[in-house]
């Protein structure tokens, strides 16, 4: 399988494609051709969380049309197993009709790999902790853990067997970490808020033709 990122990143290019039936068909045919050429088992879509009914319709429409294209590809190639279509979902309340969505999508891949990460502008930006805590959190983030999120999606979708978790295989280096008063409390620590310094560094790099956007 391969992953296709359909997140706009403030460019509006993707939303323009999704709203245009001709461009959308070209995109879907390209997905099908890519799968066939490299003998892949399907595609994993990464989309933005729908904020309204129109965006919800776009997600459902693109999934429906990709599924129809994959079914045609399966028939034309005499493939025994159906192609897989999965969807990456952010770990939040989603405006999605799961009964309708699961007619086209095999799996939902829940983003459970970045609970405590240095995303600029987020309250947990300075929190140092495991990327995917299993059962615990810290303070106001006590519900930010794998168990709570997967219980929520299991209840919402009523299909726990079609949910996947995302885990991070790697390490993170925390800088400017504040040493805890109690030496035994090393699981949850905080770091100095470094947003201003990071912004100045990015401004210097933008003058060298690099472009950055801050999530605030």
Helix/strand layout:
Blueprint lengths: L1 E4 L7 H7 L1 H17 L4 E5 L6 H24 L7 E6 L8 H4 L5 E4 L16 E2 L17 H12 L5 E3 L11 E2 L10 E3 L3 H12 L10
Parallel strand pairs: 1-2, 2-3, 3-4, 4-6
Antiparallel strand pairs: 5-8, 7-8
Helix pairs in contact: 1-2, 2-3
What does this protein look like?
By secondary structure, this protein is an alpha/beta fold. It has one domain (2-206): Glycosidases (TIM Barrel). Helices cover 35% and strands 13% of the residues. It has helices at residues 13-19, 21-37, 53-76, 98-101, 146-157, 195-206; strands at 2-5, 42-46, 84-89, 107-110, 127-128, 163-165, 177-178, 189-191. The chain has a five-stranded parallel β-sheet, with helices on one face. A three-stranded antiparallel β-sheet has the order 5-8-7, with no helix packed on it. Strand 3, helix 4 (98-101) and strand 4 (107-110) form a beta-alpha-beta unit. It is elongated. The protein starts with a strand and ends in a 10-residue tail after the last helix. It holds the Pfam family Glyco_hydro_18. This is Glyco_hydro_18 domain-containing protein. Residues 11-182 form the GH18 domain.
Could you provide a short overview of the structure?
With 216 residues, the chain is of the alpha/beta class. The chain is built from 6 helices and 8 strands. The chain has one domain: TIM Barrel, CATH 3.20.20.
CATH class descriptor name: Alpha Beta
What is the strand content? 5-15%
Proportion in helices:
25-40%
CATH superfamily: Glycosidases
* Order of strands in the sheet with most strands: 1-2-3-4-6
Number of strands: 8
What is the overall pLDDT average? 80
How is the quaternary structure best described?
Answer: single chain
Distance between the termini: 33 Å
Low-confidence stretches: 208-216
Tell me about the largest β-sheet. Answer: 5 strands, parallel
What CATH architecture would you give? Alpha-Beta Barrel
